[in-house]
């Protein structure tokens, strides 16, 4: 059995710079639709690398395969995001403050794990496997620490955006800690209650 170690903050920070030329993949953002789908497919593969505990550096982009994967995964994610939009709209209809509260709670405690689960399994149903959220309850302290580390890393890369490298680094590591936690607790069976 492979043991996935908890990734350190410094290792997560260094990760995108291990293969710095591949940060240029972020330029695909300027290519509407096609570039976005390629990057989406690439991000799915990247998150799977994180789940499996592989942090050698940014993986090589495969334009056609990543485009196909990005398009397929995008279509499969639509039902979830439609339901999510309806929930947010209904919550905001009740009151703007309530809508904002629901948005924050879903964005911190629900969406990250469900998104990693979805990108791992790539089925429509996997975005609705709410039992995965037992991790938040069972490992609440560790989950909060993981989320705080993710926000801190994002903030650092946002500051580094002033020298341009921060945006692609942020884009390619925006789920690194959650995916690592998922790999340790779900993939390797550390949580027998799931």
Automatic annotation (TrEMBL):
Keywords: Membrane, Transmembrane, Transmembrane helix. InterPro entries: DUF4013. The chain crosses the membrane at residues 23-48, 69-91, 97-118, 155-179. It comes from the Archaea. This is DUF4013 domain-containing protein. It comes from Methanosarcina mazei S-6.
């Amino acid at each position: 059995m492979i043991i996935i170690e908890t990734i350190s903050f410094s290792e997560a920070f260094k990760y995108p710079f291990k293969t710095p030329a591949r940060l240029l993949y972020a330029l695909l953002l300027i290519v509407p639709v096609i570039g976005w789908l390629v990057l989406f497919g690439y991000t799915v593969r990247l998150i799977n690398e994180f789940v499996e505990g592989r942090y050698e550096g940014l993986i090589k982009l495969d334009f056609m395969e990543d485009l196909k994967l990005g398009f397929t995964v995008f279509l499969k994610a639509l039902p979830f995001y439609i339901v999510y939009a309806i929930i947010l709209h209904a919550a905001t209809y009740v009151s703007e403050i309530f809508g904002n509260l629901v948005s924050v709670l879903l964005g911190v405690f629900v969406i990250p794990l469900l998104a990693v689960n979805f990108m791992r399994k790539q089925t429509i149903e996997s975005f609705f496997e709410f039992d995965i959220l037992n991790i938040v309850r069972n490992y609440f302290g560790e989950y909060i620490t993981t989320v705080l580390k993710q926000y801190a890393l994002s903030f650092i890369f946002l500051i580094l955006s002033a020298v341009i490298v921060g945006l692609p680094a942020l884009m390619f590591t925006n789920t690194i800690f959650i995916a690592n936690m998922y790999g340790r607790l779900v993939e390797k069976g550390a949580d027998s209650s799931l």
